[in-house]
Amino acid sequence: MSEEKRRKIQNFISVISLILVGVIALFLLIASRNQKLTGTVFNVIIIAFLVFYWILLDIVEPILLKQFENFTKERKTAYVKYIATDAVGYAGIAIFICLLGNSSSNKGLIGAVIYVVCICLKRKFKEEFLGIPSSQEKAENRTETEEKNKKE
Known about the structure:
Helix content is 82%, strand content 0%. By secondary structure, it is mainly α. The longest helix is centred in the N-terminal third of the chain and has 31 residues, at 3-33.
């Protein structure tokens, strides 16, 4: 796939995701002002949004970008870890949003912490899935190259 086509697909997915975020932000604003919206309906809408967002970014985007070509066992394992970690992170955000304002305790913050931890792990697994060398592997390769150059 050409770089231009890849960029167009990524821009298209970005626009869709920004529109989704804008719609859900508007919904949250309206819901916070409207006392008629029950907690259950609010929670279901938030969870549905997060599931759709997860599917868009973790399943649809890789399919459109043809990232499943040359799918080795290691890449498959990394992909499963990547989407599972991202799903757990989105569940953490759902917990945070759904418990926000429901009680006087800070139990919702646990969801935010889960999300932050999952962001770090997700990045690592995504790099493995895409075959991008980690920063540690880059440093090791640089060191090996420098050692070879010194020997010569």
